[in-house]
Amino acid sequence: MRVHLGNAHAIEGFAGPSGLEFRPFPGERVTSFDIPDGLSTIEVVGVVQGGLRHLIAPGHAPAWIEADDNSLRILLCQSLGVDPDATRPESWGTTDPEV
Questions:
Q1: Taking the mean position of all CA atoms in its chain, how far away is CA 39?
Q2: Taking a C-beta distance cutoff of 8 angstroms, is the pair 64, 5 a contact?
Q3: Angstrom distance (rounded) from CA 25 to CA 34
Q4: d(CA 10, CA 54)
Q5: Which of 37, 45, 35, 33 lies closest to 72 in space, CA to CA?
Q6: pTM of the full structure
Q7: For the segment 43-90, what is each residue's pLDDT rounded down to a tens digit?
Q8: Would you kindly state where each structural domain of the chain is located, as residue ranges?
Q9: How confident is the model at residue 99 (pLDDT cuts 50, 70, 90)?
């Protein structure tokens, strides 16, 4: 199962003076999860929520969500505060971010 999220507030980890730190990773990104078979829908939601803590800036939500399973997509939208009608814009990720 695959899940793709529009991430306009991506972060990247780096080794800082006090250990693992995070900084912004500019641009419109697609954050993807390739979920192994055998997990329940609730377990998949937990995997995505847990992973996003290290991939999206605190206080932000994905702009849109795509998934192989529409019921999973709806549940992820509800749990992450994403409008279920939001879709990936054709122009998503086509502009170069200023770095």
A1: 19
A2: yes
A3: 21
A4: 9
A5: 45
A6: 0.89
A7: 999 999 999 999 999 999 999 999 999 999 999 999 999 999 999 999
A8: 2-80
A9: low
Taking a C-beta distance cutoff of 8 angstroms, is the pair 1, 37 a contact?
yes
3-state class (DSSP) for residue 75: helix
CA 37, chain centre distance (Å) = 20
User: How far apart are alpha carbons 61 and 89 in whole angstroms?
Assistant: 16
How far is Cα 27 from Cα 29, in angstroms, rounded to an integer?
6
What the block records as the tokens of 64 is 């849109």
Question: CA–CA separation, 77 vs 54, rounded Å?
Answer: 18
Q: What would the pLDDT profile of 16-31 be if each residue is shown by its tens digit?
A: 999 999 999 999 999 9
Q: Fill in the DSSP letter of residue 16.
A: E
4 and 55 Cβ atoms separated by less than 8 Å: no
